[in-house]
Specification:
Blueprint: E1 6-9, E2 15-20, E3 26-28, E4 31-34, E5 56-58, E6 65-70, E7 76-78, E8 81-82, E9 84-85
Antiparallel strand pairs: 1-2, 1-4, 2-6, 3-4, 3-7, 5-6, 5-9, 7-8
């Protein structure tokens, strides 16, 4: 998977663009994500945190970064660990 790839969830409406990718299995709503869509999968209630359009999601190590381009009900995860919203960097104070 390379930067710029568009991934679709098979469990909900979520779609993301890959900004950075190291390795591992990306899932949304408990089901694997794919570039071409795929067979519809059931949304796992434990993985139904939702995605927000325009937000970036990262793993704790910073090896994976995804940009949400279409919101959905599933939670984005890497190898079973939920991805976190990327926080904006604080701007320096200007006096």
């Amino acid at each position: 998977m390379k930067p710029g790839s568009r991934l679709k969830s098979t469990a909900c409406d979520s779609e993301v663009v890959v900004i950075r990718y190291g390795s591992g299995t990306l899932t949304c709503g408990g089901a694997p994500m794919s570039e071409g869509g795929g067979d519809a999968a059931e949304l796992d209630p434990a993985q139904a945190g939702g995605t927000v359009i325009g937000k970036r999601y990262v793993d704790a190590a910073g090896t994976v970064e995804l940009l949400c381009v279409k919101p959905g009900k599933g939670t984005l995860a890497l190898d079973g660990t939920a991805l976190q919203l990327k926080e904006a960097k604080p701007l320096p104070a200007s006096d």
